[in-house]
Amino acid sequence: MIKKWLNWILDFFLPKAPAVEELERMGAAGFAGRAKHSRELNGRKKLIAFFDYRDPLVRTAIWELKFRGNRAVASLLAECLFDELSAELSELEIFENFTQPLIIPVPLSSKRRRERGFNQCEILLDGLAKLDTGNIFEINKNLLIKIKDTSSQTKTDSRASRLKNLRGAFAVSEDSGADAAGRNIIVIDDVTTTGTTLSEAMKTLRRAGAKKVLGIALAH
User: Fold this and answer.
1) Which of 49, 64, 69, 145 has a beta carbon 3.0–4.6 Å from 217's, enabling a disulfide?
2) Domain locations in the chain as residue ranges
3) What digits encode the pLDDT tens for the residues 79-117?
4) Strand ranges inside the chain, DSSP E
């Protein structure tokens, strides 16, 4: 709540940057046409990122989503995610029998959620739910929980250190109203660097009996 008030005060007294105002007016097609695209992370076929975080346009959009909870930019990114995800699912259904997926967000720890006031990945999934008029997937925001408060991955140098930092950080909730066993699951993150967070989340779901698990980030 305090963070929301601070953001409101900043918006009131400090004008938004032109790049942010442009993003808030932009449509998904315009963003996708201008943004630099990414793809598989280091050849890992089960980890995909759609946009390149080094692109200033992408970086500004992610920042507005992640640290400002900018709803206009969140709607834009959700629409971009929906378009990319729909195309990806069409191929996965044909070539890998990846059907009726359950889509979940990378969870935040309770401490991080209190500090930020929201989970940016959940905001993205709210946008996906509104766009999925054909019911091509199911969304559950509570299946995976973070039970270990870890230090920021951006502050951890090596991949080995990141893996150690996240080991045992996730668990499958027994009160989510969904079951991981036998399901095709997609884990959504906003931005990934080495794919370590997504990989650890995916391992947790596989141990819980998930059929196939795919990790997708908006940006890398």
Assistant:
1) 49
2) 37-50+81-219
3) 999 999 999 999 999 999 999 999 999 999 989 899 889
4) 40-41, 44-51, 102-105, 138-139, 144-146, 170-172, 184-191, 212-219
Q: In the numeric block, which tokens belong to residue 29?
A: 């097609």
Residue 28 CB neighbours (<10 A): 18
Max Cα-Cα span within the chain: 53
**Cβ contacts of 128 within 8 Å, gap of 6 or more:** 78, 81, 82, 85, 103, 137, 139
Q: Closest Cα partner for 36 from 7, 62, 66, 72?
A: 62
Contact criterion met (CB below 8 Å) for 171 and 204: yes
- In the numeric block, the tokens 């990378």 are attached to 106
Tens of pLDDT, residue by residue over 157-170, are: 666 666 677 888 99
pTM (2 d.p.): 0.88
pLDDT digits (tens, 9 = 90+) for 112-156: 899 889 999 999 999 999 999 989 999 999 999 999 887 665 555
Burial pattern 126-148, b for ≥16 Cβ within 10 A else e, equals bbbeebbeeebbbbbbebbbbee
Which CATH number applies to 37-50+81-219: 3.40.50, 3.90.1200, 1.25.40, 3.30.1490? 3.40.50
Question: Residue for token digits 């997708």?
Answer: 216
